[in-house]
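#data-curation
PF: Archiving a pair of folding outputs for the training set. Convention for this channel: one message per protein, sequence first, structure tokens after, nothing in between. First:
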Amino acid sequence: MRFKLLLGCLLFSVNLGAQGPGAGDPGMVAERPAAEGGATEVNISLYVIDIEKIDDVNQRFSVDIFVRSDWQDPRLALPAEERSGQIRTMSLEAIWNPRILVINDRGLSNRFPRVAEVDDAGNVLVRQRVSGELAVDLQFGEFPFDTQRLPIEIISYQYSPDELSFALNSKIMGDDDSFSAEDWRLRILEPEFDQFVLSGGGGSARPRLTYFIEAERIASYYVLTMFLPMSLIIFMSWMVFWLPPDIVPSRIALSTGAIFSLIAFGFSIRLSLPRVSYMTRADVFVLGCTLLVFLALSVAVIGSRWASREKMPQALRLNAVARWAYVGLFALVAVVSMLG
């Protein structure tokens, strides 16, 4: 399927003809078509070939996209008597173009030559395939049950909204099920049209077209590799309450072993995420489990101390109460961290 798509893209890039009238004219390159007739409308449509990966730590995502942009420039039209359905190939630098910029570009590269196809009537068509990394502001508050929006933000860096507008029929397509990104469920959303305000340019606005791809994290991996092992550590610590209070070494060893295991798990989770100033759901779970293990250690120390002071009935009663309170508190931590 992907081979057929790439073959189609290559066939689209084959251009016929030669330079036409007006190509390379400095005035025509600098001035937009029909400048006195309102904003020039530009259609930009995308086909997402692949989303290769989403990098949580660096907050980037890698894309491979086929871009189709078109507009109408009457100055490139041939006289009626010379029209024969010919398609001319022109360099983008030799004709007017909308000065497009992807503002969250962090390393996109073009695969095709920077040329345009122009028909007899002056309709300009540019096809390009781009691949590389784009920046994204990921929000990890719900991690690992989070859903992100991956943007492709396109603006015209030279023209204002009064001079250039993006066509409302601009669209994005792609086969959601064929993307390579692991551990994500991806879905293409509708584009959004608004304005990008230049903060350092005296409040100047530029037309903006933003395409979004929704990325829902598949949490099963984290449930199996994080929540389940940590739950087992918690229940290992729970065994403290089933041992007699006067068996001090075994009770202390169980509690301290559980604490060290939780600390190691906490570090491994944080290594897979950027340093953020807020807590994620995973952090809530780790913190809650850590407090429970410290609670088990405290109860073990208090019970052992009571037993050594001939307060065995009180120590046994503390064990019995903590045994079931501990389970209830763990259930509360699990519900809060998983359901929010």
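PF: Second:
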Amino acid sequence: MNSKERVQKAIRREPIDRVPLDCWLHEARFCKKLNDDYGSVDKFMDEFNIDIASSFVPFPNQFGEKDEKFHHPHFEIEALADLKFEDPRDPKWRNETHWHPVFRGVNPTEALEKYGDDRFIATHVWGMVEGTSSFLGIENCWLNLSAEPELMGAWLNRYAHWLADLCEACIDQGADMIRISDDWGQNGVELFPPDVIRDLLMPNLKIVVERIRSKGAVAAIHSDGYIMNIMDEIVGLGVQVLHPCQESAGMDQALIKEKYGDDLIIHGGLDVMEHLLLLEGEALEKYIRRQFEICKPGGGFIYNGTHIIQPDISPAKLCQVYRLANELAPY
């Protein structure tokens, strides 16, 4: 079987030859180090049997000119009611090339043309909080979720329908999975009160998830941080894949596997923020083996870093990790 078939079968819980492997190589400074010390990103993906190719759409706020930080102008919460969205089916969303200098972006069209016949194509879109933050700014988005629930609720419903249309366009183009990026957690606790998540975010996110699944694609959530208190709600959305189950933030992968393993694919296992950064040699190898021992049995596991590989990681260390992952992956 090729990589696309392997991941598809893994998500359907069908027998496969090994754990699918993923690695987010999208930090431009790390990728330069990789190219200098080892070889190209494609060489790494081929040699270490990376099964998934990720692609990205730009943030939904594309109004006005970008500033020196690559941000578009922000709006006040009251202005969102009259804001007219740009056409989500416009090919520009799937053909972005003007990325932040430290981001090695790949748009959906590029990913499909380069990898679509063999690798599983994941398209990364911006969820309720992260998408709205591009319009309001992070602080004002977070503040208004509690301070202006009616205004935010109306906006989020409009945004959810727009995002669902964008996801549909990506699926129609050939995406196998839509990964909705929406960070709800920090270390040890969720970022927002549970009622905000349940009453404002989840009902609107469900609109997007249902559209994705109605088109026959896989629905995934990326949420950094601790989100153990809303795991039942995540399962209730109909999400099939959860990334990253961040251990360094307090996520209990063994408990997630035991309680939710029949409903969710764990997409992670390599904690970039702590274990990959701090561990060396035998300690790193022991950690990797433990993650496979927890997450691999019975399937439902795709090995990946918890986030984009950062430039403070050496290419040699990453090769060490994925060399061992290939040894541990076969069923």
